[in-house]
Amino acid sequence: MNKSLLKLGIIILSVFLVFSLFSCGKNEKEVLRVGTNAEYPPFEFTENNEFKGIDMDLAKVLGEKLNMEVKIHDMDFDSLIPALNAKKIDIAMAAMTVTEDRKEQVDFSIPYYSVDQAIIAPEDSNIEINEEDDLTEYTIGAQNGTTGQIYIDKNFIDKDKMNKKQLNKYPTNIEAITDMLNGNLDLVIIDSSAAKGYKKMKPIKTIYTIKTGENYAIALRQDSQLKEKINTALKEILKSDQWTDILNRYIK
Amino acid sequence: MEFFGVFAEYIPVFLEGLWLTIQLTLISAVVGFFIAVPLVLSVLYGNKFFESIAKGFISVVRGTPLLVQLFFVYYGLPAAGLNLTPFQAALIGFILNSAAYQAEYMKGGFLSLTTEQMDAAYSIGLNKWESIRYIIFPQAFRFSIPALSNEMIYLIKYTSIAYIIQVEELFAQAKYFASDTFYHLEIFLLVGVVYLILVYGVTFTSDWLEEKLQIPGFDVSHLK
Amino acid sequence: MIESILFVFENMPLLLKGALVAVELTVLSILLGMVVGLLVAILRLYGPKYVKKLMKIYEWVLRGLPILVILFIIYFGFPSLGVNIPAFISAVLGLGLRSSAYQAQIYRGAIQSIGVEQVEAGLSIGMNRAKTMLYVIVPQAIRLSLPGFTNEFTIVLKDSPLAYALGIAELLKQGRNIIVTSFRPFTIYLTCAIIYFLLFHFFYYLFRKIAEVYEVPGYIMSKKS
């Protein structure tokens, strides 16, 4: 192999790499860093590297209202609150339910969507759940850190109604549902809205709903200056046709 | 410090996590060793068929990232009908990984012995397998002490990856703790120290063992 | 089967985009590791006593820690000290500094194998110590280190998917994004593994070729690693 050719190759490669690092720049508008976990259709997912879903479209509209440039930071759901507090992101929009525990760690905007917890099973399953306690006989999957997982932990495992091994925690609902469809799990607990989204893709059915009346809201740091502005903008958006359009796009 | 007060409550779960880390490491290193022996024998002395299978296996395992292997075993294999718990999936991933790396490592040990000693063994009338069994293997076994300890050090560090597939080992506990309490820096520094103790504990033990079992005239320090 | 292959091809552009991020991450980390590693190696060999000791501890700690612990300290731990580093740079720092500890060892070994005679030779023709290092020792040391360096490069490449834990859109993350809407983990993870395997062998052979071209005449380098 030719030495000088090799040298040239190495130089070109390194210059290219250095430039690719610095090529992102030019900010005129203030940037709004939105954290999400884009593995949660219909609220957030990607299609051809573009962020899609109810939350993502809402973030776009929110950015327009606030006159800020929206930048999406995709991460593990578990990492969102730590990232918020470590100032990695300004707000988190990830179908996040307002809970007392989370309120100790972060602040929330006004709610923009309300859901219950759905218990889903494979379409051909004949499991019947008539009351909540029937759940204790089954192995349940949940995305780690979600309301569903915390609900099972608090109401069943902490009260010794269920063995710790009956609750499998997954990084996302995908693995939980896949694992269920593969026969490793009986049921999965997820937000009712997500159940609707997944039903379009996989042979699943909702067999029971736990009325939790939870609210999705935007999470902010407790010292955030954005809260007032976001709440005002959110109120306007929720009344507008834009919001109805977004919902119709992803859930019917 | 406030941190230690909070941490004290979590000590039992951290001990459980630590125990899982140790289990994963020991089982993978030992089982991996027993798979590595036939692998390395196949590579060096096997017929074409076994040689290519062993070589192929080693090359695939060493040529792909551990995390990808774990994802494939845990999330991918169910589609092929193999359902595994996170712990089982991690164990399979680590054992196969450990077997391939130990085999590659032992190969060096075997090679440094082979030619002359095999000739000597043939000349006193031993056949191929007798020579391997009585001459090469007992010596090569000594070489595998650093191999085994190197592998254990590798495993102690890399078992932390298993948290990504929900194995609640030491690192997973640290992550849960950090999410709950926000003591990110403190907890990761603390588990860092625990990992250092484990890693260097193995290093010192193996150095000591190696010195005790040294074969006179054979210096294996270059293999480290 | 054919359907699976079509599905993979359809999604190949996304996966290749992720693969490019993996390569960028690896190359930048290796470069950082090279600069810091050379410095550490030289300081450990020629520095004052306490600096030598400090460098030894640096190597010792970074080589003993799991890479995830290093990444999490930098990404999630440092902000509580007021240092907030974006995910990609955190990953480069973590992978790069860890690699610097290993590269330092490789370079130190190489420098030591060159020997005092050459330093003396350098000094005797009127160069000062720094010049001798820069013009005589380092160029040879780098060439002698190539086999070890090749090995280190592949290790960093194989650890790059751990940046996934910081939410970086490398190959594995792109794979997961595709799985979210397609629910085809087996096919996608298998494809990811194949792409990594090809990357691994591409760089492995590339560096071996480079090592052959830059072999220092008279110094035997081991051909296998």
From TrEMBL, chain A:
GO terms for molecular function: ligand-gated monoatomic ion channel activity. Keywords: Signal. This is Transporter substrate-binding domain-containing protein. The lineage of its organism: Bacteria, Candidatus Macinerneyibacteriota, Candidatus Mcinerneyibacteria, Candidatus Mcinerneyibacteriales, Candidatus Mcinerneyibacteriaceae. GO terms for cellular component: cell envelope; membrane. The keyword Signal applies. Coiled coil: none annotated. The keyword Ribonucleoprotein does not apply. PANTHER family: ARGININE-BINDING EXTRACELLULAR PROTEIN ARTP, MEMBRANE-BOUND LYTIC MUREIN TRANSGLYCOSYLASE F. Belongs to the bacterial solute-binding protein 3 family. Pfam families: SBP_bac_3. Its main location: other. Residues 31-245 form the Ionotropic glutamate receptor C-terminal domain. Gene3D superfamilies: Periplasmic binding protein-like II. Residues 31-252 form the Solute-binding protein family 3/N-terminal domain. It is found in: Cell envelope.
Automatic annotation (TrEMBL), chain B:
Pfam families: BPD_transp_1. The keyword Amino-acid biosynthesis does not apply. The chain crosses the membrane at residues 20-45, 57-77, 83-101, 182-203. Residues 18-206 form the ABC transmembrane type-1 domain. It comes from the Bacteria. GO terms for cellular component: ATP-binding cassette (ABC) transporter complex. InterPro entries: AA_ABC_transptr_permease_3TM, ArtM/GltK/GlnP/TcyL/YhdX-like, MetI-like, MetI-like_sf. Belongs to the binding-protein-dependent transport system permease family. This is Amino acid ABC transporter permease.
Automatic annotation (TrEMBL), chain C:
Residues 19-207 form the ABC transmembrane type-1 domain. It holds the Pfam family BPD_transp_1. One of its GO terms (biological process) is amino acid transport. One of its GO terms (cellular component) is ATP-binding cassette (ABC) transporter complex. Keywords: Amino-acid transport, Cell membrane, Membrane, Transmembrane, Transmembrane helix, Transport. InterPro entries: AA_ABC_transptr_permease_3TM, ArtM/GltK/GlnP/TcyL/YhdX-like, MetI-like, MetI-like_sf. The keyword Membrane applies. It is a multi-pass membrane protein. PANTHER family: L-CYSTINE TRANSPORT SYSTEM PERMEASE PROTEIN TCYL, MEMBRANE COMPONENT OF AMINO ACID ABC TRANSPORTER. Belongs to the binding-protein-dependent transport system permease family. This is Amino acid ABC transporter permease.
